[in-house]
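Record format v2
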Amino acid sequence: MLELALDVGWGTTLAVKTIVVLMLIPAGALILGYTFLLKMMSHMQSRLGPMDPGGFHGWYQLVGDGLKFIQKEDIMPAEADRRVFAFAPAVVVISTFLVFVVIPAGPRLVVAPLDVGVFYALAVSSLSVIGVLMAGWASANKYSLLGGLRAAAQLIAYELPLVLAVVGVVVQAGTMSLQGIVEAQRDGAIFGWDGVGFPFVLTQVVGFGLFMVAAQAELTQPPFDMPVAESELVGGYMVEYTGFRFLFFFIGEFGTAFAFAALAATLFLGGWAVPGVEGTAADVLGPIVLFAKIMFVAFLMFWARFTYPRLREDQLQSLAWKWLIPIALVNILVTGILKVAV
Amino acid sequence: MAAKQIKGMLGGLGVTLRTMLQPTVTVQYPHEREEPPTRARGVIALKEENCTVCMLCARSCPDWCIYIEGHKEKRPPRREGGRERTVSILDRFDIDYALCMYCGICVEVCPFDALFWSPEFEYSEPNIASLLHDKDKLGEWMHTVPEPEPLELGAEPPKAKK
Amino acid sequence: MTTTNPTLPGPGGLPEFEVDPALYRHLADAQVNVELDTGDMILNLGPQHPATHGTLRLVVRLDGERVVAADPVIGYMHRGYEKLTEVRTYPQITTLINRIDWLSSFANEVPFVAAAEELMGIEAPPRALQIRLVLTELSRIATFLLFLGEMGLQVGAITPAFYGFRDREYVLNLIEAVTGGRFHPNFNRIGGLKDDLPWGWLNDTRHTMEKVLDSCDTFETLVADNPIFEKRTRSIGIIPAELGAAYGVSGSNLRACGVDWDLRRDGRAFLPYSDLEWKVWTHPDGDSFARYWVRLQETRESARMVLQALDGLASGPVMAKVPRIIKVPEGENWVSCENPLGEMGYYVVSKGATGPFRVKIRSASFSNVSILPWLLRGVYVPDVITILGSLYFILGDIDR
């Protein structure tokens, strides 16, 4: 971990790490939400989006929204299961926090440099399914139950392409540690030229495509947003959530988008690495580079979100099981063969 | 088949990207304003001196939102030995814009051209009762009434006003 | 590809349509909070729902995700039009009937005014008829642009809806420049039109029609060519042609089933459509995609018609000689025209007064919606939304 000039005990380090991660999620959610949901979506729809709050192009809009949500009355349906209802958004947000623990932002800027970082990140991001099911069930509402069941089926179905898409990267890098994968991309070379290292997206194009599609489905964004279909079940499993509980879901959704974008940037685009830059310079430059790559990946995700209509639940499932998983398996096969033979 | 599908998916992305890069169509009201066209039916203005209290407008309103009260007064004859003239004086002319449908039948039906359309639309009020515009307020709208526009080619020239 | 309608007509003709009274009795007093028994769940797509274009209540009985029976409950927006017309004069009625189908309001006035003109024996001058045609087609374009956008919204794409509203604004600005009102023009009069066109309108309209053609291309790229949209709409909600005609489905819905019937060409000639070169678009499939496609092509065709009509605009007055107080002589008349939503007609009974004795309004959406109980059997819940969107009814038109 980052060696500070001062000698601090493990307690302080733990506290600092926790606070950094806790701050990162709402900040990431806010930035993604503002840039893409409010501004990019608006310009794609030929309109301006918020302009007044905060004076300069409405940057304060989401902060104001957050404050508004916090001061609202806490309403719970009378028939709802109180503890499950209250805990469900927390489960979703906690799983997002846990993903950020392993994402490196510099050679020494990582909260927990696990050797099985990829495995851990994917496993922990699946916890949100439980939260969704809890929300749908505890709302005591037919609509949200339908939405919760649809969401659970979808999330489970798209876990597999997500994981299998990443296996190709792991095979190519030879390690499951995210730090190792970033360094493998930095130290690689394209046909002998090591100007930009060797981002895995060049050979793992299929894997990158699969990861983006599966991440889109994991986030229940169009074209996979049947669980929260606005013009049908109006909010799905979240329909009974108001006030700060809804805010939690919202932060969870955009925080997870931030997390998946960070994962994609790390696994496929080279993460924080800038070839030729080492040591403390990389510690300073790394987060900025990572942020830029995250924004690029998030741009792709949200671009697809605002353009496409949604798939029906059975079409969505058949896409996952009949198309994405076989393609992912073939991808792993080909990567394995090429890794050994070439 | 697959090529057509891929082209279809990419085409949609291209449309949204292109729209994002073009300027938006938003008019940021109230900082910017779009002027409504000359004929826009914003508010009805009353030219009091033309009104003869014939009540045609009040009768022809589909909503019965025009309230007119008047009385007759005697005036001296115009020349010596003539009959006394009776003149209608307008006491009250209210248009209730909470009911008004902005159909324009009253403006059209008035035989003395006492009612005019004006494109002015920014007169919303915090309470409904203030939407009843009385005679003076309707007279104030007169200075927002635009000149009638020239007509297109091929149209009959408008008849001379009496 | 399997269809979602379990029975299709065979070569013999109409399928058997059996009504199980017990099923519909339960639907009539459906309650929302029943026990969650997926074998027999009753879902209330209530009067307030983003997908039902207004206050339509659709009570469906579900088995899992499939609809077993559906019952539309209308009347939440009944405004008593036919009663209102009994106590209003003809100019006042022209104002009110703008609001039946509010998205294409100019087109609502035309059949009524044509009926009254026929009873009076008055013919509107040719320039008036041509401008009426142009404004009717502009209303059609305005309505269909909104449809092209919001159909995307029903299947989940949020962006086309904004394009629909944006492009519609250009047409509404044109209508406002002529009539003074964007949504409720109130421009038809018995004997012609209220006013002539303002200076510069012809050029503005020509530019706007070019923009309309461009935006139709945008919709085609963004929505119609999208494979996801095709997956969501092909083979969904197939209306067999004879069944549609039997139910009274009209307009683009019927043309999307392959029936080559358009009152602009095949009905009585109230507007000079025969002077223009235009084509009636049909599609053989009868599914939701066909309805979208037909309306897309009709929008383009309307834009071309407007351009042609403007080039051949006659000169002259826009109002025939009519008495100041209009009293329609005794008689009855039925006129129906091809409105954007379908066939809209007025049956005017006059007893010689300044207002009609009775007006019966035949609105297109009322018949279009009547096919829903048949159409929604065996359909998935998301497809219910798609079908509702593709039939394109307006609640004001259903309930009057």
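Confidence is low (pLDDT under 50) at residues 1-17, 23-38 of chain C.
Residues 94 and 109 of chain C are 6 Å apart (CA to CA).
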